[in-house]
Write a structure and sequence with these properties.
By secondary structure, the protein is mainly beta. The chain has one domain: GroES chaperonin (10 Kd Chaperonin, Protein Cpn10, Chain O), CATH 2.30.33.40. The chain is 4% helix and 39% strand. The strands form two sheets. Strands 6-7-1-4-5-8 form a six-stranded antiparallel β-sheet. Strands 2-3 form a two-stranded antiparallel sheet. A hairpin with a 2-residue loop joins strand 6 and strand 7.
């Protein structure tokens, strides 16, 4: 892969949103809402959040599907894929299926 987040950040591959149509009109990418769910690709340093808190790897694992804050994180492109680097605090939930 070649990307490793630092500190308590998480590298996420956002889930692709299905092309949406409203009344037969295709919504362009520029007005589509950004997806808020993705798959964890890599974790940053495994340090406790605070005194007595859980380590990042005790809460989230590579491969987990997560829901993250709508405007959190930084979008990056690596190779032909797009990723998002978010802070641990921007992860709102782990999706259990």
């Amino acid at each position: 892969m070649g990307l490793k987040p630092v500190d308590e950040r998480v590298l996420i591959e956002p889930m692709e949103e299905q092309e949406r149509k409203v009344g037969g009109i295709i919504i362009p990418d520029t007005v589509k809402e950004r997806p808020q769910m993705g798959t964890v690709v890599a974790l940053g340093d495994d340090v406790p959040k605070k005194e007595g808190g859980k380590k990042l790897s005790e809460v989230i694992s590579v491969g987990d599907k997560v829901i993250y804050a709508k405007y959190g994180g930084t979008e990056i492109k690596h190779g032909d894929k797009e990723y998002l680097i978010v802070s641990r605090n921007d992860i709102l939930a782990v999706v259990k299926e």
